[in-house]
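Aggregate trends can hide what the representation actually does to any particular protein. For completeness, the protein is quoted in full, as a sequence line and a line of structure tokens.
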Amino acid sequence: MSNLEHLLLPVTMNNWNSYTYSPRVSTLISFSSDAGAIPEALAYVPVPPSFIFDKFNQPVDHQQLITECKAIDGDDDLELSLQTMLSKYRDIENEPLLDSNFKYTLPHAFKHSKGKTTSLTMVYPSYLQKGWAGLLEQKTTNRFDPDVICVTFKSNLADIDLMLNQHISVPINLLQSDSYLHDIIKEIANRHNEKIDIENALMYFLNQPFRLLILAVEKGIQCIIEDGYNEYSTQLAASRFITVDTKNDTNLVNMQRIFDHRFDEAGDAYDIMCGRLDIQPAWELFENHFTYMQQGCNTEIDSVVNTITRLSTGYDFTIRNWNYFQQAVFDLAMVQMGNDDSSKIFEEWINSRR
């Protein structure tokens, strides 16, 4: 028997597919008494729970773990590589992780083709009927996704450089910038020989997804100011999350049901998930978590809006935290739900909340 027998291995088919890493599934796993995680009531924090600890019994940084996981993802002998990687870590009781009796998981989804060669229990979050939610969750799992990160005046220059210059062919030098947004807009306008009102442009891009600046490099400032949402939503739809048939998978987590706004539906899906992963359900924690996540949600539209804002901002819906990214994901959700006029649906929803 592998000494990784308690590892619940997240797997992904490939990028932009319906199998992806889900912090929400990790949160649900952490509720179980079988899981060696720090108890985090309702798991408000937007990071995965802590399953893995160092020799000082301190939680290992998730980004460090992700880096280590990526380094071995695709290895021919994934099981051996995982054993080597995890051999230096400990569980919540300060026992060697590979000798632990607790279930645990990792903050990274490994290639499904390599996972199939292991003897480990794999976890498949499936978005077959909610591709928009898969796209949303994949993007919000990325620390520097330009669709999720908003333009502000106080952003770190290193982060700005990472989000902008890795996506454009001719970099914009920001090293000496005192006002990065002003300098980026001015440089883009110069490249397109545009005469623009800098202050008006600043106000337009502020609090919008960083992706708009990337689009402006390609199309120009004026084009984005005049038709920014259509340009943005078109590119987001083009990177649509692909869904695949998961009928033959025994360990999938049905994301269509487990985060339903109806407790009976969500509870049944949670119970099935626990059974497939051989962990005990924790109904009190799950019910508290459900109440927190679905507070005030009485309809499917309520649940869609709530899921979008909670995953992308960590807060309940307000007009202030609803920008082009949230609206574009909402539009995709309405299309996948068979509703053609998403703008009218959103307007009616807004009016019903007042």
